[in-house]
């Protein structure tokens, strides 16, 4: 087994999944605004320390995705966050994309940027102790959207990124996210997701990416957030597993879903249903949740140091629930 395959397997080990704590500074600002916490470096550091030092979080969490600022920060005891996580038996990961830019011919759509200086940045993250990376492509469903060009460009960049990561012994999380925003049906989401995954794997293979050394981070196949008829967790699970079986090669070690705007409850329920019916799937089906692991924790914390212990308990409760769901045991 290659080293990359070994790390990928650890990331989706039974009972475990990934915490996406890689919100950029503006994005964490949006989360903080909801709990009326100022978006300054001290608060961002303090909040991440709360998460990463939650006692024994490594029972449920295999890896944490960080943002550039975060991976350079230290806990109050002076240790780097990478060291703090290592002690918890948790792997460190880093988001390496640099956000998105509008497509020239279709300005409503975006393509992810950050490739130009990526070869120079990756060795620095390796020296800091990172074991894996994340890059997110964003696909919107709308009238005449997505365009073939948007799907293609995002897939090509995901593949280039993935190859560069593997050349640096980093496991790439390949995240082609079809957004749930909009009034589209679950069937439409299935059709678009299937196409996006097909094109993504064509490009990954073309680029010579070792599929046993990646983690795929897809959206679930789900109704648009403003669609009148919302599919049930069972329907979401059925169409999601069908779509993945049709598109994802068996060599891929693991799939770790994003939560994408599902509530904590729904994201646990859908993951549970998926794992209940996925008995004959060749890959592990885990989670790489951001909002669906943090929403109630942020509320419990509310920026107050006297709430840290309660907030950590809240985080561990949600992590445990998601870990059970990840094995279909919720
Ligand atoms: P959500 O689970 O909040 O969608 O975040 C996951 C993520 O990393 C998106 O890039």
Automatic annotation (TrEMBL):
Annotated GO biological process: glycolytic process
GO MF entry, a single one: fructose-bisphosphate aldolase activity
Keyword Lyase: yes
Catalytic reaction list: beta-D-fructose 1,6-bisphosphate = D-glyceraldehyde 3-phosphate + dihydroxyacetone phosphate
Pfam families named among the record's database cross-references: Glycolytic
EC assignment: 4.1.2.13
Keywords: Glycolysis, Lyase
Pathway involvement of the protein, from the record: Carbohydrate degradation; glycolysis; D-glyceraldehyde 3-phosphate and glycerone phosphate from D-glucose: step 4/4
InterPro entries linked to this entry: Aldolase_TIM (IPR013785), FBA_I (IPR000741)
Family, similarity comment: Belongs to the class I fructose-bisphosphate aldolase family.
PANTHER family to which the protein is assigned, alphabetical: FRUCTOSE-BISPHOSPHATE ALDOLASE (PTHR11627)
Classification via NCBIfam families: FrucBisAld_I (NF033379)
Name of the protein: Probable fructose-bisphosphate aldolase class 1
Protein's organism: Candidatus Magasanikbacteria bacterium GW2011_GWC2_37_14
């Amino acid at each position: 087994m290659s080293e990359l395959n070994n790390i990928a397997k650890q990331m989706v080990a039974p009972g475990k999944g990934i915490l996406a704590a890689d919100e950029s500074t503006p994005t964490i600002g949006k989360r903080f605004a909801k709990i009326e916490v100022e978006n300054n470096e001290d608060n961002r550091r303090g909040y991440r320390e709360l998460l990463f030092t939650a006692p024994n979080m490594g029972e449920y969490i295999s890896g944490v995705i960080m943002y550039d600022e975060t991976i350079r920060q230290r806990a109050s005891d002076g240790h780097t966050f990478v060291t703090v996580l290592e002690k918890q038996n948790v792997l460190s990961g880093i988001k390496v994309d640099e956000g998105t830019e509008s497509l020239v011919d279709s300005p409503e759509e975006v393509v992810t940027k950050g490739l130009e200086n990526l070869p120079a940045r990756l060795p620095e993250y390796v020296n800091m102790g990172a074991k894996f990376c994340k890059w997110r492509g964003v696909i919107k469903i709308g009238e005449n959207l997505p365009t073939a060009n948007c799907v293609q460009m995002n897939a090509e960049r995901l593949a280039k990124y993935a190859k560069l990561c593997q050349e640096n012994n980093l496991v790439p999380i390949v995240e082609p996210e079809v957004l749930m925003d909009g009034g589209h049906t679950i069937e439409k989401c299935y059709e678009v997701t299937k196409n996006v995954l097909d094109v993504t794997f064509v490009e990954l293979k073309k680029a010579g990416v070792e599929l046993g050394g990646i983690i795929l981070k897809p959206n679930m196949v789900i109704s648009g957030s403003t669609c009148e008829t919302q599919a049930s967790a069972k329907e979401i699970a059925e169409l999601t597993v069908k779509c993945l079986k049709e598109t994802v090669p068996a060599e891929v070690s693991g799939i770790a879903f994003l939560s994408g705007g599902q509530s904590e409850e729904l994201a646990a329920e859908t993951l549970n249903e998926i794992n209940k019916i996925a008995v004959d799937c060749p890959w592990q089906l885990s989670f790489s949740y951001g909002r669906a692991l943090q929403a109630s924790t942020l509320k419990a914390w509310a920026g107050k140091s006297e709430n840290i212990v309660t907030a950590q308990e809240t985080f561990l409760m949600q992590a445990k629930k998601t870990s059970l769901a990840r094995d279909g045991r919720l």
